[in-house]
Amino acid sequence: MPFLNDQNRMWQEKARNVAEKVVRPLARKYDELQEYPWEIKQALAEAGLLGVWIPKEYGGGGGGVLDLCLVIEQISRACGGVGVMYCVNALGSFPILVGGSEEQKKHWLPKIATGEKLIAFCLSEKFAGSDAQSLRLGAKADGASWVLNGEKKWTTNGGAADLYTVFAVTDANSKSRRISAFLVEKGTPGFSIGKIEDKMGIRCVPVVETVFQDVKVETAQLLGGQPGFGFHHAMGTLDLARPGVAAQGLGLAQGALEYAMVYSARRQQFGSPVNSFQMIQQMLADMASQVEAARQLVYASATSLDRKLPGAGKMAAMAKLYATDTAMKVTTDAVQIFGGYGYMKDYPIEKYMRDAKITQIYEGTNQVQRLVVARNLVKETNALTQLLDAYIPREVQVGYNDPATLAAQKAAEPARS
Asked: Cα(227)–Cα(116) distance, rounded to whole angstroms?
């Protein structure tokens, strides 16, 4: 991409090297085992990739959201599950960057940047998915401490992570300041891992229920040091994280397209490679066009967030929904190009389709993303109305033989030369 700078290309190349040398050869193994790939995590840490998005003053690489997306894209191109395993550390640490105190940033971010500590994001619950305001896990003040009780659902990286960003209700009677976030360490008394999910895709990264039974944390573990700002921290985090999910979808789509290109050149039917058939060529052309359109939107949305441009949140939602819808379509089409072999687990392509589906669901379903985009468009309508409304004709209901209506209509007609 000609508009990527040297820093962007450096992170992209580092990620591509790890993806091809380490991730791709191990992708099938950990998909089958459904175990956390510690050796891949170590390779990512040694390449300095676990701190890309963390500012240099906190021991990170000083990259932006675009750099993060470039890395996620390359990793997901080789394995969607490892792409999730990687970027969930950004998801979990973004609340610290968005709302943490200086002491919290200095204490935790350098450890996350080196890979010494892994982190998870605990927002969703059994009865609070898209509706994040409906959380039930509660935190009650107990002198200088807080006591957490309840459970979380779909905690990605749960069990492997050392630190958990946990969102809890601290004021049930408040609407705007109902939720707060806490930093809870593995091993805290009362904190445990519950059900471990058996997933269709992204099988190398654990997704679990996390259980909190009288978990006592100190005020120093309250994100930002003040209660009531958790919903703000969560929404700010999701805005920053959505391009990362979009990059997962982009990487999966690109990887599936590449496999389809190679296989369709190799597969012979009727005495010719199937990529010589016009219907296969049309599929490949559409897949490639959709992938490139998704790439431009992902990169543009990430750049908008890095530059803090107006409308960046809307762009992030657009990128997330478009790139992940593209991932599902392109991976499905790639399976079709592989034919019956595409449905078999000893071929690599069916895993791409399984890994792609979740990207349409987590960190805000694509239905919710469309609501976010639509509501932003409604807000933008007032300014457009002032500019364009005069150019749109208005119809008048004419009453039958109604002189007053006829006269009004005639008066409203433009003068004819």
From this structure: 28
Q: Which residues contact 316 (CB under 8 A, 6 or more apart)?
A: 239, 240, 242, 243, 246, 301, 304, 305
The angle that helices 80-99 and 24-33 make with each other, rounded to 10 degrees, is 90
Distance separating alpha carbons of residues 375 and 381, to the nearest angstrom? 10
180-212 per-residue burial string, b: 16 or more CB within 10 A, e: under 16:
bbbbbebeeeebbbeeebebebbbbbbbbbbbb
pLDDT by residue (tens digit) across 65-79? 999 999 999 999 999
Identify whether 222 is part of a domain: yes
22 and 133, same structural domain? no
Q: Which of 116, 363, 380, 395 is catalytic?
A: 363
Q: Which of 205, 127, 123 minimizes the C-alpha distance to 160? A: 205
296 and 263 share a domain? yes
Q: What pTM did the predictor assign?
A: 0.93
Tell me whether residue 363 is one of the annotated catalytic residues.
yes
179-216, pLDDT tens digit by residue? Answer: 999 999 999 999 999 999 999 999 999 999 999 999 99
The conformation of residue 50, written as its DSSP 8-state character, comes to G
Same domain, 10 and 147: no
Per-residue tokens: 262 = 């190679």
Encoding tokens for residue 56? 């240099």
Residue type at 90? A
Residues 104, 168, single domain; the answer is no
Are 102 and 125 in the same domain?
no
Beta strands in 74-206 (DSSP E): 119-122, 138-142, 145-156, 163-169, 179-185, 191-196
Q: What is the pLDDT of residues 253-312, one digit of tens each?
A: 999 999 999 999 999 999 999 999 999 999 999 999 999 999 999 999 999 999 999 999
CATH number at residue 172: 2.40.110.10
E strands, 71-169, are 119-122, 138-142, 145-156, 163-169
Amino acid at 366: N
Residue 247's CATH number: 1.20.140.10
User: Domain range for residue 161?
Assistant: 120-229
For range 81-99, the mean pLDDT = 97
